[in-house]
Design brief:
By secondary structure, the protein is an alpha/beta fold. Helix content is about 40%, strand content about 15%. α6 (about 140-145) packs parallel to α7 (about 175-190) and α9 packs across α10 (about 280-290). The N and C termini lie far apart (about 75 Å).
């Protein structure tokens, strides 16, 4: 057998680009993973080469090109620059992303993404025109169809059992699948392709399906001196409305179930709500009761969810391994284990194995369900040792299980042999159980630190895999069978966020009716249809009931809209901060009524009038009294007692920002919203205090903004704006 050919190792990214051009030519379509998985040094070298050489035709296809925050004013710079230095110093910024944002790409370079940071490219013609809309499970296929001939990835490396291995664990989502498809296309079309990887020593080495042989790559950049700091995504503050949405969604999560949830304040709110349910149950139930949810949704909660602490725990099947999952794991909620072997999983599913403990009865159940042959074969023996059913140190020789100088016949038609093996050869607990299958990860800096601090054994309980595994149910040749996925994903709750919901149950999540793309479909449609395919699953879409403040507030529950992400026929559960609308299988009349019930009360009557005018709700219908007090003020009252007990802080899992930065950020956002509502109203206090000295209580904030001693009229104006903003929020 010939040894697998390894990649060419480079320390200089420019020389690696020479290699790529020599291999594939000057027409390069470079495909790389979303988010954290990009080989930044390689991409920068390639982009610089294309800028220098107009004969190179470069297309970059990816998603979520991560960038540190930028500013558009001096006041924003003073706020953001110290944060940027603290959190992103050492991050190798993507040069093509900066030029794409500034709309300064050279004519021989084209950038296409299939998922944007929300709102990042709303007014960017190049990015809007070159956006690719695709379901996440089709992304690998579509990037190859787009012409990808070079694939790039950020990887970790580790010697395992004497063999060097690579891990695409920060983005196992599409990387290996896209490479496989690209290589098959190469065989068919006879056009050369290349796989280039960049090693990062800070990257947690993740296990599962993301572990691969070095032979997957043609060239590897291995230079710790130039490697990038991992991009940190700071946690967002969780507002009262977000907490309530998370709590409402969390009441529908059943113990011994499966969870999928995404990044951001809503995902954090779901995770925090579940932690409160588990560890602060009395306060949690108090919030739920005060919200009024039990007055109409208790039967649904009893059937589909629960309010009690978790006994058996949860398992995650999610495209994204987010910080919220790590927090749930740390709080002993992600305790349910799943196994990538259908025979072992059936034992667990049936209850023959409880808490992973192996018993003679469980071993016999495995035989009776035809999980292994009654005349044990070598492959059966290896599987039993691999998953811990048999203890380590045993060997298999000619139909016998050998334990040192003892031999046990592996013919289980003979009950005496079965008893002897069960009494002497079984392991204690199952091995290779996963608490999560996930496609990719990105998070705050302490998320990476926590994962890096895990032992290998602990990280091995996380299976970083393909979106073909986690985002869909139907089987494929490479990954898990459909029958096994059904067992894994019992009591599945697939929770995602949307922008708007229409009164017929359709959800808008990725774009506007004028065609502009806000973000992308990602895996949302996959998980929605996934939930409909499982008898015991539900799909939950979280919608903030409003956007904007004061006079600029508008409802996100709308009568209709000219764009849809999730069509009405896939309606399931809508959750807002004001409650739960179960709209699966309901009539149009009932759907409209239930969605109006969870809308903000400032907009309910207008929605009802439109529905009546269109003949979708009877003229005699009135909104029940219990839904007529859907106001932000009432939500504050609902959370107030729990907050007195120290619960529901703005940053429940900690923050990278200082207390002064949090106060300043809140104040400046409030001032901006006030100015958008009424510029004169916002500036009234600024002008009124023009000749007054800044109060002493504002000193630390002004020092942070370097405005304690303004040197000119512009700086004095900024100082007065900061002081007025702080007064608006009560910080001073």
């Amino acid at each position: 057998m010939t040894e697998a050919k390894g990649p060419v190792i480079f320390k200089d990214p420019d020389k690696l680009i020479d290699f790529v051009i020599e291999k594939v030519g000057k027409e390069i379509t470079f495909g790389t993973q979303l988010g954290l998985g990009k080989p930044n040094n390689i991409m920068n070298a390639l982009y610089r080469r294309a800028k220098q050489d107009p004969t190179i035709k470069l297309k970059i296809i990816t998603a979520l090109s991560l960038e540190p925050p930028t500013w558009s004013s001096d006041l924003e710079r003073r706020m953001l620059e110290p944060i940027r230095e603290r959190l992103w110093s050492g991050y190798v910024e993507l040069e093509y992303a900066a030029d794409a944002r500034k709309q300064k790409l050279p004519p021989n370079v084209e950038v296409s993404e299939f998922f944007y940071k929300a709102g990042a490219f709303m007014n960017n013609a190049h990015m809007q025109q070159n956006y690719i809309s695709t379901n996440y499970t089709h992304a690998a296929r579509d990037v190859v169809d787009f012409g990808m001939n070079v694939a790039g990835a950020l990887i970790g490396q580790k010697v395992i059992d004497g063999q060097l291995k690579y891990s695409m664990g920060c983005n196992g989502d599409t990387a290996m699948d896209a490479v496989d498809i690209m290589r098959e296309r190469e065989k068919k079309d006879k056009k050369p392709t290349a796989v280039v990887c960049e090693i990062n020593t800070h990257l947690p080495f993740m296990y599962g399906d993301a572990v691969t042989d070095p032979s997957i790559a043609d060239a590897v950049l291995d230079n710790a001196e130039i490697e990038t700091r991992l991009f940190a995504v700071p946690r967002e503050p969780v507002a009262t409305a977000d907490f309530m949405i998370g709590l409402n969604a969390g009441t529908l999560i059943k113990d011994d179930g499966t969870l999928q949830v995404g990044i951001g304040s809503l995902g954090d709110a779901v995770a925090y709500g579940l932690i409160c349910r588990h560890h602060n149950n009395a306060d949690y139930k108090g919030v739920v009761e005060r919200s009024g949810l039990l007055g109409y949704a208790k039967p649904m909660i009893d059937e589909w969810g629960g309010l009690d602490p978790f006994d058996k725990g949860l398992y995650g099947s999610t495209e994204m391994f987010v910080d919220g999952f790590l927090q749930l794991y740390k709080n002993d909620i992600m305790r349910r284990r799943c196994y990538d072997n259908i025979h072992i999983q059936r034992l667990v599913h049936s209850g023959a194995v409880k808490d992973g403990v192996i018993t003679p009865e469980a071993f016999e159940a495995l035989i009776n369900q035809d999980g292994i042959h009654k005349r044990l074969r070598k492959k059966d023996f290896d599987m039993l040792v691999e998953f811990g059913m048999l203890k380590t140190g045993l060997t298999y020789e000619d139909g016998f299980i050998v334990d040192g100088d003892k031999r046990y016949a592996a013919d289980f038609y003979d009950k005496a042999n079965l008893k002897a093996v069960a009494d002497n050869c079984l392991g204690d607990k199952l091995k290779k159980g996963y608490w999560i299958h996930a496609g990719f990860y990105v998070g705050p800096e302490d998320f990476y630190d926590s994962v890096n601090a895990m032992s290998d054994e602990e990280r091995m309980m996380i299976n970083m895999t393909s979106v073909l595994n986690v985002n869909q149910l139907y089987a494929n040749n490479k990954y898990l069978s459909e029958d096994l996925k059904l067992l894994h994903r019992k009591n599945g709750r697939f929770i995602n966020a949307g922008l708007m919901v229409t009164l017929n149950g359709a959800v808008v999540s990725d774009g506007l009716e004028n065609g502009k793309v806000v973000s992308g479909v990602g895996g949302q449609y996959n998980f929605v249809s996934h939930a409909h395919a499982l008898d015991d699953a539900r799909g939950i879409l979280m919608i903030r009931s409003t956007r904007g403040d004061g006079k600029n507030a508008v409802s996100n529950v709308v009568f209709n809209y000219g764009h849809t992400t999730v069509p009405r026929h896939l309606r399931d559960i809508i959750v807002t901060e004001y409650g739960i609308a179960d709209i699966r299988g309901k009539s149009d009349k009932e759907i409209a009524m239930r969605l109006i019930n969870v809308a903000d009360s400032r907009f309910q009557e207008a929605l009802l009038a439109k529905a009546k005018q269109a003949g979708k709700i009877p003229d005699s219908y009135t909104i029940p009294d219990r839904f007529r007090n859907n106001t932000p003020e009432r939500l504050e009252q609902v959370l107030a007692p729990a907050r007195k007990n120290g619960l529901f802080p703005a940053f429940p899992f900690g923050t990278s920002f200082t207390p002064d930065e949090i106060a300043l950020g809140k104040a400046l956002r409030t001032f901006k919203a006030k100015a958008e509502e009424s510029k004169l109203g916002a500036m009234k206090g600024v002008l009124g205090s023009w000749f007054s000295p800044a109060p002493d209580s504002a000193r630390k904030y002004l020092e942070r903004m370097q405005l304690q001693n303004p040197e000119n009229a512009k700086e004095k104006l900024m100082q007065k704006i900061v002081v007025e903003a702080l007064k608006m929020t009560g910080a001073i």
